[in-house]
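Q: Please design a sequence for this.
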């Protein structure tokens, strides 16, 4: 994955897509990391559909984020894809411009993260490659990220396989907004995809011990105010 510095001085971490898919065992369901018994959370996250996105996948993303990252998840009404983000030469949408649009949907000064979910193909610039197709893009320790189901559906075995990929990618990108960088822990959800879907397919879908400790130290759970 590559990183891009934005005008907001935020680092954007990218989940890169690849054409070749290597199948791997996918759990029948994501093992739950129970949220704190007293309802404590570490951040607020808003889910929003950009254009279209299956309701079942959005529901799975919400469950996955709550369970794995212990965040409070809210929904926003669907919004149209911004025309300014469309890249006509490749008939896809620029992920960096989608992030700029998502920033406008969060109140200024808000600590809420927002994740845009879409079915269209998305891309960003990687090194000398102007337009590189990706699974997702997110601000590192920032407020916005976006994921696309377009490439995550390719050569998937069934609906459960697609769901695993989508939820794993969502956790990865929100993880970036919470300050987690790429890691080298075996099968950790925060590993750099290095241009291959194989990394997603062979992930446990969970944070490794080191990333979990880093997240707990940087973003400890906070009890709800009464």
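A: Design:
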């Amino acid at each position: 994955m590559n990183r891009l510095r934005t005008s907001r001085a935020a680092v954007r971490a990218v989940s890169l897509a690849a054409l070749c898919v290597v199948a791997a065992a996918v759990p029948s369901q994501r093992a739950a990391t129970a949220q704190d018994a007293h309802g404590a959370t570490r951040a607020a996250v808003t889910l929003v559909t950009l254009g279209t996105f299956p309701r079942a996948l959005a529901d799975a993303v919400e469950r996955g984020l709550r369970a794995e990252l212990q965040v409070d998840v809210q929904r926003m009404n669907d919004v149209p894809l911004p025309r300014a983000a469309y890249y006509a030469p490749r008939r896809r949408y620029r992920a960096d411009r989608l992030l700029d649009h998502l920033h406008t949907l969060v109140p200024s000064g808000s600590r809420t993260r927002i994740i845009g979910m879409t079915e269209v193909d998305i891309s960003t610039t990687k090194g000398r490659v102007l337009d590189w197709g990706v699974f997702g893009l997110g601000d590192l320790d920032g407020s916005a990220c976006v994921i696309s189901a377009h490439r995550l559906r390719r050569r998937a075995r069934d609906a459960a396989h697609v769901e695993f990929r989508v939820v794993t990618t969502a956790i990865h990108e929100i993880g970036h907004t919470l300050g987690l960088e790429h890691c080298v822990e075996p099968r950790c959800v925060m590993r750099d995809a290095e241009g291959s879907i194989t990394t997603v397919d062979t992930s446990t879908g969970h944070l490794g011990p080191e990333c979990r400790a880093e997240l707990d130290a940087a973003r400890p759970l906070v009890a709800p105010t009464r």
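Q: Thanks. Anything notable?
A: The chain has one domain: 3-18+34-218. The two ends are 42 Å apart (CA to CA).
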